[in-house]
Amino acid sequence: MAARAGDSIEKREEEWRAILSPQQFHILREKGTELKFTGEYDKSFQEGIYNCAGCGTQLYKSATKFDSGCGWPAFFEGLPGAINRSADPDGRRTEITCAACGGHLGHVFKGEGHKTPTDERHCVNSVSIKFIPSSSN
């Protein structure tokens, strides 16, 4: 069962290592980035929900996903309360994380001119999310 926005999930590093693959741990817990055009969800546009791969919190509806051409899955908005934003230490980008477990998802960019309702691009690592088709919700 998926966690809901507002739930808080805390684990020690060894607990995260036990439940995540090495690549998931690197991206979600160490703020890594997968190579562009390699993620399983970049060109996937089925109906459903994208959950955090770390804790299962629902993050994005498939209706908010769009093809930005950036090489990573792109969404124009997350579910209410599901995603936190914070400035990267260098101040050049805004990091997005799962509000429940703090897992690194990617970065959000504004004002790029995408024809979406928010003019935002949530650039998300496929490894950070898990797709649940509508028939499974």
Query: How much of the residues is beta strand, in percent?
Result: 25-35%
Query: Percent range for helical residues?
Result: 10-25%
Terminal residue distance: 9 Å
- Rg computed from alpha carbons, rounded to a whole number of angstroms: 14 Å
* N to C succession of SSEs: HHEEEEEEEEE
Structural class: alpha+beta
Shape: globular
What is the makeup of the main sheet?
Answer: 6 strands, antiparallel
Mean pLDDT, all residues: 92
Uncertain spans: none
Q: Order of strands side by side in the largest beta sheet?
A: 3-4-8-7-6-5
Number of strands: 9
- Count, helices: 2
Overview of the structural elements:
There is one protein chain. This protein is of the alpha+beta class. The protein has two helices and nine strands, in the order ααβββββββββ. A six-stranded antiparallel beta sheet has the order 3-4-8-7-6-5. A three-stranded antiparallel beta sheet has the order 2-1-9, with no helix packed on it. The longest helix has 9 residues, at 22-30. 32% of the residues are buried. The mean pLDDT is 92.
